[in-house]
Amino acid sequence: MLFFCGALYHVVGGSFLQEYRMGEQSLWDFASQLYTQPGVEEACLYLQDNCRLNVSLLLFLMWSTKRYGQMQPAFIRECCDLSDTWDGAVVKPFRQVRRWLKHQGAQLGDQDTDDLRSQTKGLELHSEKLLLQALEQKAMAMGLESQDINDVDSIHMNLRVMLVHLKLAVDQSGAKALVGVGQEAFPSLDGEAWTVFQNELVKMGGA
Hints:
Order of helices and strands: HHHHHHHHH
Shape: globular
Mean pLDDT: 86
Structural class: mainly alpha
Distance between the termini: 28 Å
Radius of gyration: 17 Å
Strand content: under 5%
Helix content: 55-70%
């Protein structure tokens, strides 16, 4: 996951919950702001690299659940397929090149190699933003009324549908990371409910 890196969006004073206004915040702004919260970047990178979870899709589910609540499983599956296709065909190739240039290209010691890595980084960033825009447009096309929803059952159900459809199993660290992101996105929700959900994720991963 590249597209925020803590530098594209700065939270000035107050908490994420205090500054969050669903009706005025785009998916990109929501995701950028959430990514700056404590531990979220590290959790997202773990989920991406160790659990094969598309972080753009995850952040979209957080945003859309806050906006619309529990969504139809068919809609979530469509978003999963869109994200998986785009990520595999566009985002991952850019990421692989960027990482190769960072670790192997440095041996060439050439300014042109550094420039290429910077250009690739920009393309990766742009491709992730395009995916978020496509997901946002897909959600808004449903024509549902925008709200500010904080419902633990809705976010848990939406996440379950995503994990099952993509056949993703998270280990104990992955479950903790996923719950950590959820707690930052929904800070007013009951912590005990998140603990129960984390244990459920671990059981799902071991099934």
